[in-house]
Amino acid sequence: MANANLTINVNEKRMLKQSEAAVYTGLPLKHFKATCPVPPIEIRPGTILWDKRDLDNWIDAMKEGAEMATQDVILGKL
């Protein structure tokens, strides 16, 4: 039997489309759209992506019981 080498490179994406961000957070897309306060980044015109690090920070803050600042919360405090 012949020997074979297999090299697999996996490059994990940091920036996610909205549907991918919803899956990443474990939320249905509809719920993600309604509740996620993390603003997307427009990488180029028409390309809107969510940063996994920002999503992680949001989830970590919820675990700590911290209030996430949404635009409504910020405006309410002014």
Walk me through the topology.
Blueprint: E1 15-16, H1 18-25, H2 29-35, E2 41-44, E3 47-51, H3 52-63, H4 71-77
Antiparallel strand pairs: 1-3, 2-3
Helix pairs in contact: 1-2
Organism: Roseovarius litoreus
Protein name: Transcriptional regulator, AlpA family
Describe this structure in words.
This protein is of the alpha+beta class and 78 residues long. It has one domain. The protein is built from four helices and three strands; from the N terminus they run βααββαα. The chain has helices at residues 18-25, 29-35, 52-63, 71-77; strands spanning 15-16, 41-44, 47-51. Strands 1-3-2 form a three-stranded antiparallel β-sheet. α1 packs across α2. The protein is elongated, with a radius of gyration of 18 Å. The model has no long low-confidence stretch (mean pLDDT 86).
Rg over CA atoms, rounded to whole Å, is 18 Å
Number of domains: 1
Q: Let me know the number of strands.
A: 3
Structural category is alpha+beta
Largest sheet: 3 strands, antiparallel
**Order of strands, widest sheet:** 1-3-2
- The poorly predicted ranges are none
Mean pLDDT, nearest integer?
Answer: 86
User: What distance lies between the first and last C-alpha atoms, to the nearest angstrom?
Assistant: 74 Å
Protein name: Transcriptional regulator, AlpA family
